[in-house]
Design goal:
Layout (H helix, E strand, L loop, with lengths): L8 E5 L5 E5 L2 H7 L3 E3 L5 E3 L1 H16 L1 H11 L8 E6 L2 E6 L2 E6 L2 H14 L11 H12 L12 E10 L2 E10 L5 E4 L5 H4 L1
Antiparallel strand pairs: 1-2, 3-4, 5-6, 6-7, 8-9, 9-10
Helix pairs in contact: 1-5, 2-4, 4-5
Length: 197
């Protein structure tokens, strides 16, 4: 359980040798931002006010695909005048500039959640615009773990662990999937099996 009073940000050296903020504990940062709260059982959950605002922003994101490209460039800190393309490919949602892959998400539904979440966290997280892009991504992915319904179709989501096969073998991950459209909304890094025993 995350300590509500723990500090989640520390200063680190950034380009040019200046001090800059970095997110050390995404859950603590999201608690401080009013995005998460402790539920009756002690588990974390999205606050009702944040969830209502998040769902509204998700609907706005879904309604304007063209605006999403320009906004994504800003959120990801991309310094480019190139052609930004967003496309679903197999089991991923890819982001390219002039045909070059610069990032990917688990699904288009995850993209909707992240872009909508970025709009809200920009006003709730101190120094959001000064955070490294990797830390913004950590916050957005951490927030996505607490989705209750799918941003794409509105169906309830399911949290589970599963085995993933790759060229290097198999491993366990924690995942959040939509029970309706099948979109993957969150997938953790491989879980250390010793930690599960």
């Amino acid at each position: 359980m995350t300590d509500r009073n723990s500090s989640s940000r520390e200063s680190v050296r950034t380009d040019g040798g200046t001090e800059g903020p970095r997110v050390d504990d995404p859950e603590a940062e999201l608690l401080a931002a009013g995005a998460l709260q402790e539920g009756p059982s002690g588990d974390l959950q999205v606050t009702p006010a944040f969830n209502e605002a998040w769902q509204s922003e998700i609907e706005d994101v879904k309604a304007d695909e063209d605006a999403n490209r320009a906004e994504l460039v800003e959120v990801m800190g991309i310094d480019s005048e190139g052609d930004v393309a967003l496309e679903a490919v197999d089991d991923a949602f890819r982001i390219t500039i002039d045909g070059a892959l610069i990032g990917s998400l688990e699904s288009q539904a995850a993209f909707y959640a992240d872009l909508a979440g970025a709009r809200l966290l920009a006003d709730r997280v101190d120094a959001w615009h000064d955070l490294p892009v990797a830390d913004r991504s950590r916050l957005l992915k951490g927030l996505r773990l607490f989705l209750e319904t799918c941003p794409a179709c509105g169906t309830e989501v399911v949290f589970e662990t599963e085995t993933v096969e790759s060229c290097c073998g198999s491993y366990q991950v924690a995942a959040v999937d939509c029970d309706g459209c099948g979109a993957r909304l969150f997938e953790s890094a491989p879980i250390n099996e010793d930690a599960l025993s």
